[in-house]
Design goal:
This protein is an all-beta fold. The chain contains no helices and 33 strands. Strands 4-5-6-7 form a 4-stranded antiparallel sheet, with no helix packed on it. The chain has a 4-stranded antiparallel sheet with strand order 8-9-10-11, with no helix packed on it. Strands 12-13-14-15 form a 4-stranded antiparallel sheet, with no helix packed on it.
Length: 441
């Protein structure tokens, strides 16, 4: 979504090319409502996005679905809901021109939050709907091999602890066939479920249950068979630091392993007196063993919401960012990584005067001894570039002086610096941006 005034926001869609360059941005909404999108699916002639519409007069939410063409122009708009809050969290293609929508409703049983599934056709007409009392919200949904559906979220009513992972299986008509709960003695919440190639399911989210070795909250991932029975070889897998770590998305990779995306807290912001969030990726094998993990981000908060693998083996990560935006937490952050989770290139155009201020990611990163910073200025201005350690202390002034409009490079030598995570910040006129670099010796 995009803020368009001080109190309310409109929904937005952004289309990029394969290099992450914006091709178009469109905003959707009306003056008397606040709209947000949470999921989008590609269709043959465009895109369908789902989320919520909040009425300004009484703040009630309705499910909000918009179909657009390949240029982002609206084809149709639909709202669904009752007298209480209703919201969509995900949409997936279900074959034969149908789509499955997951979310929650408070309108079926007045004020009580229940998981909600809805099937619509290509024109947005509702075909079928159902709600489920033992799950508070369907955060994620997938069609199963038998034409039914599986959805996940959290449950308190059938939980062993405070709340548990929930997995529900329906038939093609959204009638519940079975449901399961997984977790420990404290709070556990699932955010994503996918089908696996062996016919089972994998769920990821977070746990606060101490018997799993959790200190604050950790990424929590489990695997089941086709009937929802937990894979005990996989067990209760947790990943993370001594602070808060959450899993938001998971995919099965081309090599048969798994990639989990979310956030981790691994550095402390003394100025804001809080631990900040970084994008967190975990690659694990068929038994849940960690193959590699990577973090990405700046001095403010980043959190990955989705991950996809391309045909060349690279990964596309979609996140929010506070470190690289004009206002903390207000921008979308898109990364393309190689199959080891490393950023491999930076796009520049050296021959034109830039339209906007840009501070690019240093390359190489991580680096040993030296790396190169690149930045672009749309006009002549005074520039300061400083280097900070993980505690936010300035360790070096990289540049301080006047620069002409255009593209510029700066070589940074790390011979006299210890290995570790660093942040470099540019100030050029009213433009301020921070990125991070990793020095490994």
């Amino acid at each position: 979504y995009q803020d368009t005034n001080e109190d309310w926001n409109d929904a937005s869609l952004i289309k990029t090319d394969k290099y992450g360059q914006v091709e178009w941005t469109k905003i959707y909404g009306t003056e008397d409502n606040a709209e947000s999108f949470f999921s989008v699916v590609v269709v043959n002639d465009g895109y369908i996005a789902v989320g919520s519409k909040t009425k300004i007069k009484n703040t009630d939410k309705d499910i909000y679905i918009v179909k657009v063409n390949t240029e982002g122009d609206t084809v149709w708009t639909k709202t669904y809901g009752g007298s209480q809050d209703d919201q969509a969290s995900e949409i997936e293609y279900a074959g034969s021109g149908k789509y499955i929508v997951a979310g929650y409703t408070k309108s079926v049983v007045y004020g009580t939050k229940r998981a909600y599934l809805m099937i619509i056709d290509d024109m947005g007409n509702m075909i079928k709907e159902n709600s489920y009392a033992n799950c508070q919200c369907a955060a994620s949904v997938q069609q199963t091999n038998d034409g039914g559906y599986v959805f996940t979220g959290s449950t308190r009513s059938i939980a062993v602890g405070e709340s548990d992972f929930y997995l529900g299986k329906t038939d093609a008509f959204l009638q519940l066939e079975w449901e399961k709960a997984y977790g420990g003695s404290d709070f556990d919440e699932a955010k994503c479920v996918i089908n696996t190639t062996d016919g089972g399911f994998i769920l990821t989210g977070w746990t606060a249950s101490p018997e799993f070795g959790t200190v604050a909250t950790d990424v929590y991932t489990i695997k089941t068979d086709s009937l929802g029975n937990q894979d005990m070889q996989w067990g209760n897998r947790v990943y993370g630091s001594a602070h808060h770590d959450h899993g938001n998305a998971v995919i099965q990779t081309a090599d048969g392993n798994y990639l989990i995306a979310g956030y981790t807290q691994n550095h402390y912001d003394a100025e804001r007196i809080k631990w900040t969030d970084d994008i967190y990726l975990i690659k694990c094998d068929n038994a849940g063993n960690n193959i590699w993990e990577q973090t990405y981000g700046g001095i403010y908060d980043e959190s990955a919401s989705s991950v996809r693998q391309e045909v060349d083996g690279s990964f596309i990560i979609c996140s929010k960012t506070g470190s690289y935006s004009k206002r903390p937490g207000s921008d979308i952050y898109l990364l393309r990584l190689n199959n080891q989770g490393l950023i491999t290139s930076v796009n520049t155009n050296q021959n034109k005067i830039p339209v906007n201020y840009i501070l690019s990611q240093n390359f190489p990163n991580p680096f040993n001894n030296s790396t190169t910073l690149k930045y672009r200025l749309p006009k002549n201005c005074y520039v300061t570039l400083n280097l900070y350690n993980i505690r936010g202390q300035k360790v070096r002034a990289l540049f301080n002086g006047f620069k002409q409009a255009g593209s510029h490079t700066l070589r940074v030598n790390g011979d006299d610096l210890p290995s570790g995570l660093y942040f470099y910040r540019i100030r050029a006129g009213n433009f301020i941006e921070t990125r991070r670099m990793l020095l490994l010796k």
